């Protein structure tokens, strides 16, 4: 599975801790992230992460493009619902794209944990039939 990660600045530590906690599940999959998020996940877990540009300068658009082409199977996007800065990735555009293309998305730790445990259990294997062949 191809898993996309995005985290707003105030949620970078949370996504690091999440990936560290589920490192052995995530290690079996291909991880994609915006640049700073990806670097921090790599540093915390020693997992390989394919990195896009920083979210504010195009990484968000690169992630959306991958979602639209059905190359991302699920997205974990930790954001702060209280703070909304123009320099942060746009939660609305990413969630709408995931909804439009039927890509599971988690925007909080509880949903992300359920999704990753379901991934380990094979509950998301249906996504293998959705991804285009290369």
| CATH level 1 class label | Alpha Beta
How big is the Rg? 13 Å
Bin the helical content. Answer: 40-55%
DSSP E strands, number: 5
Distance between the termini: 14 Å
Largest sheet: 5 strands, parallel
**C-alpha geometry:** globular
Estimated structural class: alpha/beta
For CATH, the homologous superfamily is named as Methylglyoxal synthase-like domain
**Based on the structure given, which CATH architecture is correct?**
3-Layer(aba) Sandwich
Mean pLDDT over the residues: 90
- The structural domain count equals 1
Percent strand:
5-15%
The topology string of helices and strands comes to EHHEHEHEHEH
What is the structure about, briefly put?
The protein is of the alpha/beta class and 134 residues long. It is built from six helices and five strands; from the N terminus they run E-H-H-E-H-E-H-E-H-E-H. The chain has helices at 12-21, 23-26, 35-45, 59-68, 91-100, 109-121, and strands at residues 2-7, 30-33, 49-51, 74-78, 105-106.
Strands, helices and their partners?
Elements: E1 2-7, H1 12-21, H2 23-26, E2 30-33, H3 35-45, E3 49-51, H4 59-68, E4 74-78, H5 91-100, E5 105-106, H6 109-121
Helix pairs in contact: 1-3, 4-5
Question: What would your notes on this structure say?
Answer:
By secondary structure, the chain is α/β, with parallel strands linked by helices. It has one domain (2-129): Rossmann fold, CATH 3.40.50.1380. 43% of the residues lie in helices and 15% in strands. The chain is built from six helices and five strands, in the order E-H-H-E-H-E-H-E-H-E-H. A five-stranded parallel beta sheet has the order 3-2-1-4-5, with helices on both faces. Strand 2, helix 3 (35-45) and strand 3 form a beta-alpha-beta unit. Helix 1 packs across helix 3 (35-45) and helix 4 packs parallel to helix 5. The longest helix has 13 residues, at 109-121.
């Amino acid at each position: 599975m191809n898993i996309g990660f995005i985290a707003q600045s105030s949620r970078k530590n949370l996504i690091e801790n999440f990936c560290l906690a589920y490192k052995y599940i995530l290690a079996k999959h291909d991880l994609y992230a915006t640049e700073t998020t990806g670097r921090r996940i790599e540093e915390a877990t020693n997992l390989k992460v394919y990195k896009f540009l920083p979210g504010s300068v195009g990484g968000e658009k690169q992630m959306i493009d991958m979602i639209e082409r059905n190359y991302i199977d699920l997205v974990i996007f930790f954001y702060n619902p209280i703070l909304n800065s123009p320099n942060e990735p746009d939660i609305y555009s990413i969630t709408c794209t995931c909804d439009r293309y039927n890509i599971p998305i988690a925007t909080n730790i509880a949903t992300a944990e359920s999704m990753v445990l379901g991934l380990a259990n094979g509950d998301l294997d249906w996504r293998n039939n959705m991804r285009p062949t290369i």
